[in-house]
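Apologies for my clumsy wording, but are you able to produce some protein sequence, whichever is easiest, and the tokens describing how it folds?
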Amino acid sequence: MLGEKLYDIVGKVTGQRVLPGTAPGEVLIEVSFQGTGKVLGIDTLESGTYTCRMKAPGVLEGVGHGLSLTAEGEAITWQGSGIGKPTGKGMAASWRGAITYCTQSPKLANLNATAVVFEWDVDEQGTTKGRTFEWK
């Protein structure tokens, strides 16, 4: 069951690379992004990178990691994985998956022990929107 909304982010894709995959003919797409958001009501700046591959026709599989910084300099790192579906031209896609957070911040320490699911959407212009929720 979904619980409290933990995080909202809006941003922009800042770069893409095509990398060799592990299987013959497979390629990975590496996507980097930056944005601004709020985690538990605290303003953050976010940077992240994920790689994805075509798992089956119309199905993407991805893994990623990132860093959020508060205005007070507190850091939150995350790593996650998910499944995406192309939604339009180019790299537009809608993703769903799970992530874990890690922080040394006393104010945000409860994130360390929280199971988290995410929604991540990228449009044709590279605009990103993300949300995370506690998974009870």
Remarks:
- The chain is about 0% helix and 70% strand.
- The two ends are 5 Å apart (CA to CA).
- The CA atoms of residues 78 and 101 lie 4 Å apart.
